[in-house]
User: What shape does this take?
Amino acid sequence: MQPLLFILLISMAPAATLWLLIRAVKWFTSGDPLPWRPAKPSPAARSIELLTQDLARLEREFARIHRDQPPAMARRLMALTLAYDDTLAACCAALDLAPPDHTPMDDIERLQTEAVLAQHGLRW
Assistant: This one.
């Protein structure tokens, strides 16, 4: 019985090694740190009303940061700009418009996106 088990293990070892190697390559190339955990669900789409409220809130925050001039103003403005750009992209998606190609957007792309949203009736 021992020689039969040994032969079976020897014959299955290359296949098992190849299978593990393929799994490892897939894991490394997928960028998923923990492949055995279920994927996080994608965030639910927010309504256009909530998105316009977010845009208005973010604009008020821009004005407040410019008035207060805190020590970390540049970092706060960058974080606020990224949030604003993401909200603009979400508004485009909610209205079935082509979202911007990338974030952060430059000033011209941001103005063009705001103009397209305004042309489609979005007010904030």
